Every structure is written in structure tokens, then in C-alpha cells.
Amino acid sequence: MVLEPVLCPICKSSHMVKHGKTAEGKQGYRCCNQDCSRHSFILEYSYRGYLPNIKQQISDMAMNGSGIRDAARVLKISPTTVIEA
User: Fold this and answer.
1) pTM
2) In this model, does residue 58 exceed pLDDT 80?
3) pLDDT at 81 (0 to 100)
4) FRET label pair with 69: which of 7, 22, 29, 57, CA 20 to 30 Å apart?
């Protein structure tokens, strides 16, 4: 059996506790670092629109003048997700 350490995606701390399960059955985690801005997360998202790097790309595309439908088509996500991000 191999144990992989779970690291916080923001502060890279390894001090985590389990924090329930999602509707899809994926394990949630909570960062115990008080200075961390992100408290709970999961390791593998089912939907690409929830990924932090996709949210950053949506923001970058909006700043460069891309429309909602254009960003949705390029990133292969729903236009509703682009609006909510």
C-alpha cells in the first residue's frame, strides 16, 4: 500500500484533514493552515470548469476581450460556467 501526501493547492501545506464526500463520492479535504485562503477542496474534479487553471484562463480571456461563447468554445465548457466564474 502506498500513501500519497495530500498538499493544499494554495499554500502547499501537508497538514490536511478529511472533510466529507461530494455527491459524486469524491473525498473532500480541509487545510488546517490558518493563513491559507482556501479552506476546503477535492483532488480530482469531475467537471473541467471547476479547475483553478480553467478559471484563470476565463479571467485572462475576458481581460483580452473574448466573449462568453468564444471562451466556452475554446475551453470546452458551458457558457453558463464562464458567466459564473
Assistant:
1) 0.59
2) yes
3) 86
4) 22
Please give the Cα distance from 43 to 27 (Å, whole number).
8
- Cα separation of 77 and 35, whole Å? 32
Q: What are the sequence ranges of the domains in the chain?
A: 1-45, 47-85
In the 3-class helix/strand/coil scheme, how is the chain assigned residue by residue?
Answer: CCCCCCCCCCCCCCCEEEEEECCCCCEEEEECCCCCCCCEEECCCCCHHHCHHHHHHHHHHHHCCCCHHHHHHHHCCCHHHHHHC
What type of residue is 35? D
Q: What is the reported pLDDT for 45?
A: 78
- pLDDT for the residue numbered 14: 86
Enter the C-alpha cell of residue 68. Answer: 462568453
58, three cell numbers: 476565463
